[in-house]
Amino acid sequence: MPNEHFALFETAIGACAIAWGPRGINGVQLPMGSPEKTRVRMRQRFGEIDEAAPTPQVSHAIARITRHLAGEADDLTDIPLDLDDVPAFNRGVYEIARAIPPGKTMTYGDIAKQLGGVELSRDVGQALGRNPCPIVVPCHRVLAAGNKPGGFSARGGVDTKLKMLAIEGAAVNHTPSLFD
């Protein structure tokens, strides 16, 4: 992918990464346990992508994401994303998710209803599992029925989702079980 770059940045939840190309930000990576593992994950996702100093626009996005994860609520909705290579249905899911303010949540069913019917709930979950820009597209704010956390594909799974929701002050119905 020519002209694509990524940069690591430290946050309250660990080393994240951000990828960008000529049309804008096209990837955000949640922490993988260490900066090196996050670098490896970026190359798994994007191929031979170069690590580089962020552009001013990307630096601004990094600063906002970092402050948000430190507890300074920011909806991040005006950070420009390049999602041209993402299927149209997924873009629709991400557009709805981006409208959820920090500290608030929706369910997979709520989003599915906006897209045509509750029977699309599983498709909504699959789209969120493929979210290329977590945090900026706040898939962590989408819950299962009954405001239960549901799944989360980032490292740390539901614990990471719950940590991000706690930073934002969102209420989640979560009673840990033997299977969590």
Describe the structure.
With 180 residues, the protein is α/β, with parallel strands linked by helices. It has two domains: 5-69, Double Stranded RNA Binding Domain; 88-168, Winged helix-like DNA-binding domain superfamily/Winged helix DNA-binding domain (Arc Repressor Mutant, subunit A), CATH 1.10.10.10. The chain has six helices and six strands. It has helices spanning 35-46, 56-69, 88-98, 108-115, 121-129, 157-168; strands at residues 5-11, 14-21, 24-29, 50-51, 106-107, 142-143. The strands form two sheets. It has a four-stranded mixed beta sheet with strand order 3-2-1-4. Helix 4 packs across helix 5. The longest helix has 14 residues, at 56-69. It is globular, with a radius of gyration of 16 Å. The termini are far apart. 33% of the residues are buried. The model has no long low-confidence stretch (mean pLDDT 91).
